[in-house]
Design goal:
- It is a single chain.
- This protein has helices spanning 27-42, 46-54, 56-67, 81-92, 152-175, 181-202, 215-226, 243-264, 275-297, and strands spanning 73-79, 105-108, 121-128, 142-147.
- The protein has 299 residues and is α+β, with helices and mostly antiparallel strands.
- It is elongated, with a radius of gyration of 30 Å.
- It starts with 26 loop residues before the first helix and ends with a helix.
Amino acid sequence: MGDPLPNGGPGPVPNGGVDEPAPPATAAQVQQYLQTVVPLLLGGQLSNVVQGMQEARSSEAVRQFAEDSHVDFLLVTRHSVEEERTVTAAADGDHEPEPWSPGLEFRFSTHHDQALQLDRVTVAVFTKRATTLSSQDLASQISVVKFADGDPFKALHSVMEKAFSPFLTNAVDTLDAGDNIGVKTMKRSIEQIKFSLLNLEQDVDIPEISLNPHPTIAAAVQLAESEGRLATVADVGVQARDPVFLDALEHLVARWTREISDLASLTRDPSRGSAKQEITFWINLERELLKVQSQTTTP
């Protein structure tokens, strides 16, 4: 019964003509899928992706995403190590930034640990469409969303504005569900979320500046105050002629100048956000500038 037909056609199919289901996906198959997709999404070389997956934590994250039905998403992050090193080198001021090649760190989270760190990283979020993955056609079973580095509220607003909302509108039109009360309520809620994200994006953080004096100067001022007089150069002693000490003071004052200049040059786009945000921004900026002025005039 199972022999081929004379014309070369297949014999009877086992299980009453029902195809056998594809076996579950393995960690190796998911790794292969990620090696294909991640370089296109996050940039970098394939060797960087392979190296990232060889780390113990990354390998375990991929394994659990592939084989554990309770782990339904995987975070793949590319850290901007280049920017961090450049900032450090500039702060040190004594050497050039060292060469950098892009690297990848793989992380996974469960429902109880969904932290997305978007500062200086690019994140790709892979999610399962079902609780388990089949070894056949992984691309159709996994969805992915990319968040660029920078302001997290801007990244979320971009996804809502340019991906989620158009998809929802198209789905509603296709299903002819525009008159459904639930759909109308959902659309209003989405618009409120987008507006809130836009407002958060427009909230400019105003840094708090602390003009901490050099310890030697602080000690001299404290001593003079305890004696009921103003501090003089003589209170510093022989360090007043020490080139290393004077150079440290020069660098300290230069840092103060840079921080104050950055604070004074802060601004925001008045055409975006609410009037309340605009007013709050300038009030808070004035308050911080007055605090800086108070620090510069206090002995």
